[in-house]
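Figure S4 source data
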Amino acid sequence: ARHLGSAGCHAVLSSLRHNGGLKELGLVGVGMKEASAADLAPALGAAGRLRSLDLSRNWFGDAGLEAVGAGLRVNSCLTSLKLAGVGGSVVGARHVATAVGENSTLTKLTLDGNAIGVDGANAVAGMLEVNRTLKSLSLRQCRLGDEGVSMVGDALVVNSTLKLLDLAFNRFSSDGAEVLLNGLCQNRGLT
């Protein structure tokens, strides 16, 4: 992938406000950093027909995830969002989870490779308890551990819309697996 730098990222994200026909955009590993994060919220808010956005492998961290969360609150078209390996922590996970909990169009969310940990898993679990449109959630390698996986498992009991859940490469023992299995058994949506 070619690195666009701050000016290039600003130009691409600003163009989303004026391009009403773009449906998919992949900006994987283009060098988007925290400096570009401020452009994410207005771009998502104005991206009228954008259905799929992949911002993976850009190191914009929690500031970028906060901006994505703000954009999701006003975006009513995006159905797929990939945020794998963006340097997010529990702070960024909370922003995204809160926004997705309020969002009624997003059906696929990828947060792989972000160190959201137990507290981030708690935010995601809260999101799963209230969101009724998300069908696919990927939390690969997010450092969830037993406690985080258990929180997600407990949330599955009340969530009936999720169809795919990926928790690969999160180290958890049979204790976490037992709670997860209980949630899976009681869940009516996952196949």
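Figure S5 source data
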Amino acid sequence: IAMIPVYHLLLTPRKPIVRDRFSRADSASLGNAETGQAWTAVNGTWGVASGAAKVSVSVVDNLAAIDSHLGNVRTSIEVKTTATANRGGVAWRVVDNSNHFWVRLNATSNLLTAYKRVAGVYTELGEIAFVMVALQSYRVEVLVIGNVHRVYVDSVLQLTMTDSDLSTATQQGIYDFGGVWSYDDFLVRAA
């Protein structure tokens, strides 16, 4: 029996549990991912426009989620910025609008910030300077294993946090504040 080197196993991406490139026709809702799971607009009104997920009616803390049925996951999305400043990124361990984690790129203040909201109470978990360029896309990824949460942007580790709240939640999704950016190539893989 041939042995597979451990480094090969660690570097080989796992098959997506959820994948959505939003390549369907424009729609007033997000519909279903390519892998079959249904999107839920947790807060705000989300749709598909020009091959990407986008908020169509913005509220504070727009949130869309999809259930992977796993808590230890690697969730990522391509954030497509515009000339207009906005904030957006990935959500994980989503229960509802009052209980979830999220990380957002912030073009107004050039920050990358991670938060949690439990029982409606916001808590900042980590923040670093992150200079953004308008009209550029960024791949935002969160790896969660147990109570360790790691945030990457364009495959570079940016934040590491430890938190055990909402550990049984199995929904991941998209976070947006402002409604002007779009989101593409959403992936959830087992960690």
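Residues 6-11 have pLDDT under 50 and may be disordered. DSSP finds one helix and 15 strands in the chain.
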